[in-house]
Amino acid sequence: MASIKYNPNGQKGRITYNSDIVSGIVVLSLQETEGIELVPSKSKGIKLCFEKEGIFVDISVIAHYGYSVPELAFRIQQNIKQMVESMTKYKIAKVDVHVQSVVFPPSKPEEAVLSPEDTKN
Prior knowledge:
The chain starts with a strand and ends in an 18-residue tail after the last strand. By secondary structure, it is of the alpha+beta class. It is built from 2 helices and 6 strands. The protein has a single domain, classed as Alpha-Beta Plaits (2-Layer Sandwich), CATH 3.30.70.1350. Helix 1 crosses helix 2. Strand 4 (about 45-50) and strand 5 form a beta hairpin. It has helices at about 20-30, 70-90, and strands at about 1-5, 15, 35-40, 45-50, 55-65, 90-105. The strands form 2 sheets. Strands 3, 4, 5 and 6 form a 4-stranded mixed β-sheet that branches. Strands 1-2 form a two-stranded antiparallel sheet. The relative contact order is 0.18.
């Protein structure tokens, strides 16, 4: 469990976030990133490490064919940083993105091309 001290208007107290909440925010940010999907696994391809410098995120994704991998990785990093920091007050120290594979669109069965001779019958 992770915690952060939050002191609005001088009130004393602590807000505690379960690491699953932060993980859920990361998943939400990935769902909003077009052109990727998470690597299917028990841990959802997400690893979080809470340190003094901030949260270190290690993410594994599958890219869709036709998207630039460097641009996808940059958008993933930006989305995770923006959403986690705005929703939890945690700081993101680093986001490592691992592209495990590329998914190609399903191939369409080729339609039989009829020659002019076949249409005469």
